[in-house]
Amino acid sequence: MDKRVLEVGYGSVNKIKIGDNLPLAFILGPCAIESREHAFKMAKSIGEICQRVGVPWIYKSCYDKDCRSSPDSFHGLGADHGLRVLADVREEFGVPVISDFSEPEWSKATGEVCDLVQVPAYLCRQTSILRAAALTNRPIHLKKGQFMSPWNMKNSVRKLEAAGCHQILLADRGTFFGYNMLVNDMTSFPIMARTGYPVCFDATHSIQLPTSMGNISGGQREFIPYLVRAAVACGINALFMEVHDDPDNALSDTNTVLDIRYLENVLGQAKAVHETRLALLEKYGEDNVHPEK
Amino acid sequence: MCIQKNNQMLVSEVMIPLDQMAVIGESIIMKETLEEMGRSHLGIACIVDDKNKLLGILTDGDIRRKLLKVQKPFSALLVDDALEHAIHSPMTTRPDMTLKDAVVLMGEKKIWDLPVVNSKGILIGLLHLHRAIQALLGI
User: Which CATH number goes with the domain that contains A44?
Assistant: First the structure.
């Protein structure tokens, strides 16, 4: 199995390589683009923290939140306005940006702005979405659906490959455990990594309790650091976390976003665990305690 | 019946042609491979690259042994590429080998099938023990 390395970033932004034994990359930002002012504030604050910790990062925020639990929930700024904000963020801060899209016709505009294009977990096996994602010619962040086994993600990978995409980052964001509950199976990372593509852990959605609060989702933020340490130790190549400066008033995912005041702590731990894992890899070699896989 | 004459027969004269055996590409998953083996009524699938070069084989016996060693869920095993579970350097034969020698080889190796490849490793057919014995006996 050849290990592929993802190359994120076009134009004048910082270029980030993700995969193999490279430094752990981070995808960070508020769930939704709330306003230009807020996006700039978050990008500036997160960028300063990442610089202090010394980690590469990609700014994440979405312009359309199509999977909200309630029709009254904030749906986003929309593609035109939202993508303009993201374009300005990458111009101002030199940081690559990522957003998802949930309608095939939005893919072209999303790919024209974003350095990394995201396929939402709920849509991870939709052929029309995957084909549209591949046609952007950008690297694709493909999230494992909460209803999918990690081995079945290979089918989605093959759909992207069939459409010409060979730059894929596979993410785990938890798996349904009965109703309104997610669990994380850490074996999903080595299993998905067998596709040859780098893998990512979405920490803040993994602690979500989907629609557990009637018409919004709950979450158990207290478990973020535990899961982050475990996932990094299991060999992820990138860590995804939604971050907000005022979680209680966040317009999306208020119960799961990480308060920015804890970001430096979590990033520092993730970086340290990753470096320890690489040192162990150097000392003991690849894990292979069972020749049959 | 003239066994003496049949002893001079070559593998190429009785081998099963490609369109009657399970020949699969390198990214074909286990589930599709098992279906293909069922369609061919043979206990072997030959895995080839896009130029038909033989990359490996998967037999009923390999699968049987695999089931005892790999205890992942069936749903996970079925979506693995067959090549992941294949024998990568299988015993093969050439088309100009005598049938008798090929059958002796199969007996020594305790195998029922021999992929037939040319000098460049390109798969051109399959020698199956049942057909080989029939040919040798002239029945």
Answer: 3.20.20.70
